[in-house]
Amino acid sequence: MRKIVLMASVSLDGFMEGPDREIDWHVVDDELHRHFNELLRTMGGFLEGRVTYQLMEDYWPTADSDPSATETEAEFAGIWRETPKIVFSRTLEHVGRNATIRREVDAEEIRALKAQPGGDLCLGGADLAAAFMRLDLVDEYRIYVHPVLIGRGKPLFPASASRTALRLKESREFGNGVVLLRYGRREVAPAE
What we know:
- The chain is an alpha/beta fold.
- It has helices spanning 30-40, 50-57, 71-82, 107-115, 126-134, and strands at 4-11, 15-17, 45-49, 85-88, 99-102, 121-124, 140-146, 154-155, 166-173, 179-185.
């Protein structure tokens, strides 16, 4: 069965964006971008909230035609165009090529999507991630901690009344100081 994988970059103090939605503090160099490309090219689809989708769609479909784009950025432009996307939005009327709109997160529909063949599904966007977490639909967390404290902004993880036990599956330090923390669900042994 496919997994729902939440991928997000955060500051050391846990914010995914600054108070004015700025992400200029992200430290993405060629090594980290190559890592993203290697991972994302294996995904069966991107599950995006409206804000994340529009941010990505504003640049990536034609990024490989930008003369200043690096080889790694040009490669990601192709990955973005070719990977199917489901955009969760109550307001968008149209989306780009290879994308569809869903108005709500329906847990049964997501479980059916996970049961289909193909690669894992990459989840992006804090509000959408919060909805998936509330419905217990996230199977893996790939959190990229950037070496910066931004003091305030939008936290990745909203306050919650529930607890989710996780197991560290991988950690990796990149040359630029970013650290990947990859967690999966902690499997609970059945009672005997």
